[in-house]
């Protein structure tokens, strides 16, 4: 099978809800990271055969062929096609996997995988609420699904609580993890670790180039004082991911394209996996997906130098660590979504950018990326830095 290579991976710095990026139309954010990829790699824009862009809340400004609109908002020629995909929080990670599959199959040689989400301008769940406003239908969970699973709806918040109970994760454990996420993100920012991956965006007072959600002064006492989302539970807004605006993208090419366009790869795709399990607990699936990916690659968890496990809720990476007996010192070394934000459909290529550049900066070889996704699905991507 042909190889797939990552030539470049970039992201915007995260913007808080109604923060510094709220003035950016999401299609324009998407267009900005597409332009950055072209500028940084020197690829001929006309050589790009497709743009696969992840977005979760496809409504309003993120509706109506959103990926195509991102291309039209960029400097790419209008002859470049695009498609919008939704695998919930893993949407742009799935975009990477679709791009890699296109390259590995030999059907395409140059594909951009990307994601964009403005959670300020297109609020989470706003697309689900449309039926209520119109007075039509009963929402995405049908009667057959409710009867099968005995629930009125699936909830990521309930899933996070269930995961914490299953793996014996106390509130203090989650809060300490959240504090460490802020500390690592603050240290990485101070050391300039994100500079290579961030695409600056113009804002009213200059350029937005620093993740807005990092709390360098966070304390355990302050995190512990935040109200729980559920009475008697352990999950709070402080030990869960931050609502975030942002965009990200990666250029995925074949070996032939490397030679034809004189490109130097950052990394090689080692293996891809996607699995699905219980939609009620929902957030546990990265564990099974990781096991499958490692098995496919003929690797063990100890062979992986760095892991990026999306911090949708602190219980997710902590359960993942315990189930796989993984090394916490290799996990989210530059902080995660609790500090840096989780721009839903953009998080997949965002995490990839951080992972690839962290491997290169440390002179390490193998990285693994995974995240929980709505409906009990999870993607895993293993890369080798070159």
Automatic annotation (TrEMBL):
<comment type="similarity">
    <text>Belongs to the thiolase-like superfamily. Thiolase family.</text>
</comment>
<feature type="active site" description="Proton acceptor">
    <location>
        <position position="342"/>
    </location>
</feature>
<keyword id="KW-0012">Acyltransferase</keyword>
<feature type="active site" description="Proton acceptor">
    <location>
        <position position="372"/>
    </location>
</feature>
<feature type="active site" description="Acyl-thioester intermediate">
    <location>
        <position position="89"/>
    </location>
</feature>
<feature type="domain" description="Thiolase N-terminal">
    <location>
        <begin position="5"/>
        <end position="255"/>
    </location>
</feature>
<dbReference type="InterPro" id="IPR002155">
    <property type="entry name" value="Thiolase"/>
</dbReference>
<dbReference type="InterPro" id="IPR016039">
    <property type="entry name" value="Thiolase-like"/>
</dbReference>
<dbReference type="InterPro" id="IPR020616">
    <property type="entry name" value="Thiolase_N"/>
</dbReference>
<dbReference type="GO" id="GO:0003985">
    <property type="term" value="F:acetyl-CoA C-acetyltransferase activity"/>
</dbReference>
<dbReference type="InterPro" id="IPR020613">
    <property type="entry name" value="Thiolase_CS"/>
</dbReference>
<keyword id="KW-0808">Transferase</keyword>
<dbReference type="Pfam" id="PF00108">
    <property type="entry name" value="Thiolase_N"/>
</dbReference>
<dbReference type="Pfam" id="PF02803">
    <property type="entry name" value="Thiolase_C"/>
</dbReference>
<protein>
    <submittedName>
        <fullName>Acetyl-CoA C-acyltransferase</fullName>
        <ecNumber>2.3.1.9</ecNumber>
    </submittedName>
</protein>
<dbReference type="InterPro" id="IPR020617">
    <property type="entry name" value="Thiolase_C"/>
</dbReference>
<feature type="domain" description="Thiolase C-terminal">
    <location>
        <begin position="263"/>
        <end position="384"/>
    </location>
</feature>
